[in-house]
Amino acid sequence: MSRRIDTGAPQPPQNAKKPLNLGNDTGGGEDYLGRLAKYIPAEIVGLYLATSSAIPKANDGSPRWQAMWIVFAINFVFVPAYFFFATTRNDNKPLWSQIVLASIAFPVWVFAIGGPFRWFGWYEGWIASITLAFVTVAFGFYKPPPGS
């Protein structure tokens, strides 16, 4: 399975003659659930969970917040790099909309997990969970233009 969203075939120009539709043409491209799954940077979220859990605890038993921010930043840099390569496989041009949305989704997922954000006085887990739910559902509605 490719991590790149299938955008479907490019649309013909407005003045071009349209081919006969025999009922089996759905317009191509990834459906809502397919797009939703491919906008989530699951591999990098997993990498974040593995690397942040490897940070040794401070003497008081709490994670070191500076190290948590460093691990978050390093993983955040990996998101656009990973999606750039994942969307350019098989001689495709980069799918910038997927790269951007995945890069926005990563901090939202870490925010929901807690991560370094829990050291902010205003952080509430329930707010983070609601934010994650709405952002994830909303991203699935974005459909890249055909042929991109």
Commentary on this structure:
The structure is a single chain. The protein has 148 residues and is mostly helical. It has one domain. The protein is 52% helix and 0% strand. It is built from five helices and no strands. It has helices at 32-39, 42-53, 65-87, 96-113, 125-140. The longest helix has 23 residues, at 65-87. Mean pLDDT is 87; it is low at 20-25.
Notable characteristics:
mainly alpha; 148 residues
Summarize this entry quickly.
Helices cover about 50% and strands about 0% of the residues. The chain is an all-alpha fold and about 150 residues long. The protein has one domain.
As a percent range, the share of strand residues is under 5%
Indicate the low-confidence ranges by residue numbers: 20-25
Q: Per the principal axes of the C-alpha atoms, what is the gross shape? A: elongated
Span between termini:
18 Å
Judged by helices, strands and strand pairing, the structural class is mainly alpha
Number of domains: 1
- The number of helical elements comes to 5
Rg, Cα atoms, Å: 19 Å
DSSP E strands, number:
0
Question: pLDDT average, as an integer?
Answer: 87
**Major β-sheet, in short?**
none
Which percent range fits the helix content? Answer: 40-55%
H/E series: HHHHH
